[in-house]
Inverse folding.
């Protein structure tokens, strides 16, 4: 056993006893290996066996004619096979990394035409292609549709979930392998899911602390390059050791997320506010109508008349002013806002005003 192999075995023994604090994260949970990724596949096909809930579109008939021609059956010219038991569909699947020919993957089938439901249908053999136009899998099988649609003769209808989308577990067979760069070279590059210079530096330091100096180098805020064995078998074991090491990720930058559609406001723990005084109140305007009826005396020859009378009332909520002390924490912000009973929309207005005043040192993101 040469020196390199001895040192590698020693590193594996050290890696097997790696443990970290409770709040640390495994590298495999915060980063992924470059080149190890899934690939999207898409295809077009026909679903048959529907209970008169299929398409009425022209291109579905053309697809049926083309399919029958490939099977050796030629329809007479000018005949449009208007079958209500067929639907044109798109097929989507995700090809996992290192998937080998013969393995099965799940597929999702979605209607392309005006089919009412795909329930009870069967997908005919359909090729699934990647972005390069090559066929990587073949899909076929019976659909599982959770949606349901029913209608009456008077035009009333009811729909539960979506009956035009179905799924076929293990419905496609892999036909081609996607080459990866994992087994090439003498290094592995780990890419963080969330870019952060501090976390990348900590990851490199954690790896070097266990595997030796200069084993890992942070390339930028996302990538950390780790020297690895050239032998593929050793590289798999080495990757397993590295991805189970513990790293303490740095906290996210101070951010406030506002969902303008739902009124949801999320403030992370790094948000701080500089000294500021805030007074927030609103006017309540109430308008009520009390019509007055004018009734003339008997035999006066007059007519009954309705005179409109409006009552206008204006009230102002007496919300007290509150003060943010220097470096106030998230808990204090929430307590101050809750004391005045501010609604989500009021909270957004307060945060925007603090940001404009320069007292809020955080990124305000509206989604």
């Amino acid at each position: 056993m040469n020196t390199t192999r001895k040192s590698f075995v020693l590193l594996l023994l050290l890696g097997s006893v790696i443990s970290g604090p409770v709040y640390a994260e495994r590298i495999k949970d915060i980063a992924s290996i470059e080149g190890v990724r899934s690939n999207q596949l898409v295809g077009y096909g026909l679903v048959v066996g529907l209970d008169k809930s299929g398409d009425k579109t022209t291109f579905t008939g053309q697809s049926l004619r083309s399919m029958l021609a490939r099977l050796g059956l030629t329809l007479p010219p000018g005949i449009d096979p208007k079958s209500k038991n067929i639907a044109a569909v798109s097929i989507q699947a995700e090809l996992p990394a290192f998937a080998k020919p013969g393995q099965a993957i799940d597929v999702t089938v979605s209607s392309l035409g005006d089919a009412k439901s795909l329930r009870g249908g069967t997908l005919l053999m359909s090729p699934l292609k990647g972005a390069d136009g090559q066929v990587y899998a073949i899909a076929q099988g019976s659909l599982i549709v959770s949606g349901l649609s029913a209608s009456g003769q008077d035009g009333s209808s009811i729909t539960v979930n979506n009956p035009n989308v179905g799924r076929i577990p293990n419905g496609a067979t892999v036909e081609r392998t996607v080459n990866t760069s994992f087994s090439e070279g003498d290094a592995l590059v780990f890419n963080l899911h969330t870019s952060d210079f501090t976390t990348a530096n900590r990851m490199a330091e954690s790896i070097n602390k266990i595997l030796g100096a200069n084993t890992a180098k942070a390339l930028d805020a996302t990538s950390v390059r780790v020297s690895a064995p050239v032998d593929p078998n050793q590289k798999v074991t080495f990757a397993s050791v590295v991805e189970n090491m513990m790293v303490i990720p740095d906290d996210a930058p101070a951010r406030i997320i506002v969902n303008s559609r739902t009124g949801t406001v999320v403030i992370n723990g790094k948000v701080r506010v500089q000294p500021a005084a805030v007074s927030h109140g609103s006017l309540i305007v109430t308008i009520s109508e009390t019509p007055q009826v004018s009734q003339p005396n008997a035999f006066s020859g007059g007519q009954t008349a309705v005179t409109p009378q409006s009552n206008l009332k204006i009230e102002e909520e007496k919300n007290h002013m509150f003060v943010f002390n220097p470096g106030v924490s998230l808990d204090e912000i929430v307590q101050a806002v809750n004391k005045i009973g501010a609604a989500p929309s009021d909270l957004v207005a307060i945060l925007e005003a603090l940001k404009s005043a320069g007292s809020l040192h955080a990124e305000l993101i509206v989604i």
The CA atoms of residues 129 and 237 lie 33 Å apart. Confidence is low (pLDDT under 50) at residues 1-22, 283-287.
